[in-house]
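ugh ok fine here u go
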Amino acid sequence: MQVVSVMNYKGGVGKTTLTANLAAEIANVGHRVLMIDLDPQANLTFSFYTVDDWTSEVREARTIKRWYDGEIPGRDVPLDQLILTPERVNDRVKENAGQLDLVSSHLGLIDIDLQLASRLGGTTLAESKRKFLQVHGCLKVALQAPAFRDYDVILIDCAPNFGLVTKTAIVASDFVLVPAKPDYLSTLGIGYLKGSVKKLVEEYNAYVSHDPGGRDGARHISPEFAGIAFMMMQIHAGQPILLQRTQIEELREADIMPILETSVRNSPRYFAEAGPTGIPAVLHGSANDPVSAELRALTKEFVHAITGRR
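structure:
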């Protein structure tokens, strides 16, 4: 199992579209995939459930907010009890023996950072360190439960920030995937994001090193960057426009992190609000549809990136 956080400080870069289509395509070739929606906007959730269905079937008791609520995340409800199996997309992927599951988000997740922050600190330094590990490592511990062992990939759709909820995702992850538009504003924070992840890893591992014998169950973490996936490319005469090619080349020369070779062109059909079908476009695009072809190629490259390094 590989756990991957999908994130960028900048919103509107195709993050949720990428997560949904990666998950669907990986499931469509016969794998078991779990998506965890940690973005309070819940766009990933609404890519698979209508608002009416979510309101009547999910909102009250089966969202990730319920898991984070309470004094200790997961104490009141195990994470695996929140797993949903969206019917419409699974009717498609089960033909190839795949399965696509989801843990839903909730608008109220926006307040969870404050709740988690209130659980930090302590009367002694040792107690503060234990609480730091407990809070930051809560999702990592939860994903070690037997219910998650049969998944091949877990994709976590993070909010466009580096709050405590996002930090729990990074601690739980083997890889971080960074979707971006090839423009200045969308790539501006990538170096800062890398630095934030590095600082979190160093701080977490330092606290683990002061936990003799792993008393609190924490282990060192070492998430890697799977790379930058460029989305919403503007294509002219069969290639990205000059301004975007220049932006990508500048980022490549900066060598901040790997850049995936496959990019995905812009298309309102793919990057608009989630439609009512509950099936990501990569699964119903025609064989000649260039965006579907690019998403399938990007999926293959992404899978190679997360399986070929470990």
